[in-house]
Amino acid sequence: MNQLVVDLLRVNLRHVREFRDRFDTVQDAQFPGAVTVCCSDSRVLQDHIWGNDEPGQVFTVGNIGNRVIQRTEAGPVVSGDVLYPVAHTGTETVVVVGHTGCGAVTATYDALTGRLPEGSEPAGIEYCLDLLKPHLRPGVETLPDDVGRAGAVNRLVEYNVDRQVEFLCDSDDVPDGVSVVGVVYDFQDVYGGERGEVQLVNVDGETDVDSLRESHPEVEDRINRLWTY
């Protein structure tokens, strides 16, 4: 047996001892307060970001590029992974979680600027990048001329979060009472805070920092953006 798998199973026993009594109230149903849509990245630990250690509190969705959009024959729709808790478990808060240095955004940026030749990624990855390209293309075209590649990517991380939030807010499948929030998880010292801080960049489509701070003074120190476009 692969030693890593052996180690993972051993660690799972610690989880068993810690959590064995925490499933009593959620064995038959779940009513999570929030669904988080996070980028699939080993450096971004969805539950740990929020200090979540109770089953049933957070419905976690992960994919490269923290996408909420799914392509169907009828056109783009809100992904069923994201929509399920909103439609079936009474969840009324969606949090789109981007992160600094996002590989999916980097690859999409490189593809849109000719640095990454078409077809250079496996088909499954190309499919995911193709879902991001039409939403990030206007952002790439709007980037300041004097920004470097890393700076461009981190601005596009915000831009991508904004586009995912916008799609949710505009969808008829998402009830008006659902709050949609966009954040960026920073572990690369980009925003000037502590490593691992979540920066609030979008609330229900509002992206203006001053307006957000005025509307949400209780978290004004966590409302920051790199880019106003």
Automatic annotation (TrEMBL):
Natural source organism: Halogranum gelatinilyticum
Protein name: carbonic anhydrase
Cofactors named for this entry: Zn(2+)
Cofactor binding summary note: Binds 1 zinc ion per subunit.
PANTHER family in UniProt: CARBONIC ANHYDRASE
List of residues binding Zn(2+): C39, H99, C102
SUPFAM superfamilies per UniProt: beta-carbonic anhydrase, cab (SSF53056)
Stated family: Belongs to the beta-class carbonic anhydrase family.
Keywords: Lyase, Metal-binding, Zinc
Catalytic activity, reaction form: hydrogencarbonate + H(+) = CO2 + H2O
Record-linked InterPro entries: Carbonic_anhydrase, Carbonic_anhydrase_sf
Record GO terms (molecular function): carbonate dehydratase activity; zinc ion binding
